[in-house]
Amino acid sequence: MALPMTRRRFIWLVLLFVITVFTSLYLFKDFNDVVKSIIKNDTNKLRVHDETIAQFIAEAAKEKKWDQFNFQKKAFIKFCYYFNNPIFPLPFTSKYIQYRSFIVRNFLLSTDFFIHKMDVESQIRYIGLHNPYSRPCSNPFSNIYYNANAIIDGQG
What we know:
Blueprint: H1 7-27, H2 31-42, E1 47-48, H3 50-62, H4 71-83, H5 93-109, E2 123-124, H6 143-152
Parallel strand pairs: 1-2
Helix pairs in contact: 2-3, 2-5, 4-5
């Protein structure tokens, strides 16, 4: 037996349809576009060209860097990116911040930002996708790195 269509039921169905369409438009966008937006937003005070971000995203896609995120994690990141706000935070916002920090951290480690001692005034250039196994000697957080440069510069 079919339920009669009332005005209230019709409004709820239309609202549910609009929310579903609106959400699916964002959830099925390309993940690389979301990564690009995340990096741009989090590094907006740094001097980063769009080409630098594009090089990182292209190499990360080639190396399948984002395969560690399954469909659900990618959908979660996209959903939180588009719908999270400070007034009504979504559940599991801390997990989203963790994923977002992972993306931005990998981007910054793939550039010369830390090599130039985190100088926000210098132009950031892309070096290569960060992989500690292929570049084991580049530890930008090493105390020896900063002391060695201070000795070379004549400050130590």
